[in-house]
Amino acid sequence: MNFLSSQFLLFLPVALLLWYATRGREELRILLMIAASLVFYADHYWWFAPIILAYCLVDWAVGIALQAKPRRAVLAAGIAFNLGVLCLWKYTPLVVATLTELAGFPPRAVARSLAADWILPLGVSFYSFSGIAYMVDVYRGQAKAERSLARYTLFTVFFPHLVAGPILRASEFLAHLAPGRLPMRSAHVLEGAALIARGSFRKAVLGDGIAVAIDPYFANAGDPTTAGVWALPYLYLYALQIYFDFAGYTDIARGLGLWFGFRWPENFDRPYLARSIQEFWRRWHMTLSRFLRDYLYIPLGGSRHGPTRQVLALMLTMTLGGLWHGASWSFMLWGALHGLYLVVHLGWSRSTPARWLAVHGGLAWRIAAIAITFHAVCLAWAFFRISDFSAALACVRAIFVFDPALVLVGGSADPSVWLLVAAYGAAALLLRHGFMISSPEKVAAFAPAIGFRSGLLWGGSLGLGLLAWLLAPSGDVPPFIYFQF
Predict the structure, then answer these.
(1) Is the domain of 235 the same as that of 358?
(2) Do residue 239 and residue 299 come from a single domain?
(3) Contact 116, 93 (CB under 8 A)
(4) Phi and psi at residue 171, in whole multiples of 5°?
(5) What is the pLDDT along the chain (485 residues), one digit of tens a residue?
(6) Domain tally for the chain?
(7) Which of 34, 59, 78, 242 gives 20 to 30 Å between its CA and that of 227?
(8) CA distances to 135, 267, 268, 427, 461 from 436, in Å
């Protein structure tokens, strides 16, 4: 079910009603929210529900066993289950296609049919990682095992964060489901409304509006129809599209969480203003970044065993992080590119010119660093957006070799797209620097709970939501980009 679909507009009031009607009856509330979340998750494919319930049962049982006696073999079995099922569902088409290319078996027709008919359970990557983080935290003694299967199941399946995160740890959500700690009401309704309105506008107007302009180019990248077209404006727009789409989803998810009484961590912090790739990953998909750091990079040695080990840890972490995003070798290359970027940054940051520029470079160097980082990210986005490797390479070549007469053609020449993005950027700057409001959290703090300003901000949130509905491209609402992961 899509947050912006007509079905969800009917589903959400019922879920909220069930939540608030069961105050003081925790067990009933938890069971009803599990049922509602499973309805949300299995809206189109009922067989998604047994898959996620199997994850819940196994991860809960492993957590109980680890609490009793933290053995590595038990942890390894739990992680193996999560990764094994994930790989089965996510990478079978890729393995079959690769074997077909290398050995000719199975036949190409079988491989194409499998790829066309294969359906990936929504959010399987996200709840696999949440389960792994939970088990590792219990093993390390950083979290207590949840004794109630129902409460652990709600931690995994709760619909606001289920499909595309944020990737939550036990301390951020499961701990708040404990007896006596379950929120009775939301204390942040206005903040949640502001987040939901901003997320809806980002997704439906900005993200989907950009998609209409650029999808034809990427669908034909490498074809004669796009020969000579300058690729860089399209990569700029795609960078903005995926940001608005995914950040919009996170806004809505966090806003819904607040309406149910839960505060979850941010996932984005103006990532395209980062002055290095390292800083970019501290600002982009932050809950995934910390997962990769804490559960892969650091266990691989991190920076504790010298520069060679650190380089290997960085490359392996980012390459596997790229492959996590999808069943395509181009995703692996995207991750490896970011690993290479981080290695280059590691060497550069320790050099004398870097230290001098950090002290004496001033505003000019900060702007240059942002521009260099942004263009490196955009180049890598070509392999993320285009799954066909040869087409992605053609897109990268078209950044540097193009027909001067085709610099801005097609969707990249649509002034309405650029004006929309510019207007949003100007409004964001005005709010941040003119009114010192940088986030819906500060919007909520800016106004008292009652009074004129509260009404003004409620009106602004409702108005932004209405704009999202009026300005969204016509037709069915496209799924969020990260639903495929």
Answers:
(1) yes
(2) yes
(3) no
(4) -70, -20
(5) 889 888 999 999 999 999 989 988 999 999 999 999 999 999 878 888 999 999 999 999 999 999 988 889 999 999 999 999 999 888 888 788 878 877 777 776 766 776 677 788 888 889 999 999 999 999 999 999 999 999 999 999 999 999 887 999 999 999 999 998 988 877 688 889 989 999 999 999 999 999 999 999 999 998 889 999 999 999 999 999 999 999 999 999 999 999 999 999 999 999 999 999 999 999 999 999 999 999 999 999 988 888 999 999 999 999 999 988 887 889 999 999 999 999 999 999 999 999 999 888 899 999 999 999 999 999 999 999 998 889 999 999 999 999 999 999 999 999 999 999 999 888 888 777 655 555 656 655 555 545 566 777 778 788 888 888 888 877 667 888 887 76
(6) 2
(7) 242
(8) 41, 21, 19, 12, 18
Range of the domain at 273: 190-471
Question: Hey, what amino acid is at 255?
Answer: G
Residue with tokens 């319930």: 53
Tokens linked to 405: 């007469």
Q: Are residues 69 and 120 in the same domain?
A: yes
Q: Considering the entire predicted model, what is its pTM?
A: 0.91
Q: Which of 325, 338, 360, 433 is catalytic?
A: 325
Cα separation, 117 vs 96, whole angstroms: 13
Pair of tokens at residue 125: 């990557």
Please confirm, yes or no, whether 325 is among the known catalytic residues.
yes
What is the chain's length?
A: 485
Same domain, 451 and 322: yes
Contact criterion met (CB below 8 Å) for 245 and 385: no
Measured between alpha carbons, how far is 56 from 338 in angstroms, rounded to an integer?
33
Question: Is the domain of 162 the same as that of 13?
Answer: yes
Statement to judge: residues 131 and 205 lie in one domain = no
Closest residue by Cα to residue 185 from 253, 251, 262, 252: 262
Helices (H), 69-219: 72-103, 108-117, 124-140, 149-157, 159-162, 189-200, 208-219
Quote the Cα angle for 211-216-219, to 5°.
Answer: 105
Same domain, 274 and 368: yes
Tokens linked to 56: 């819940």
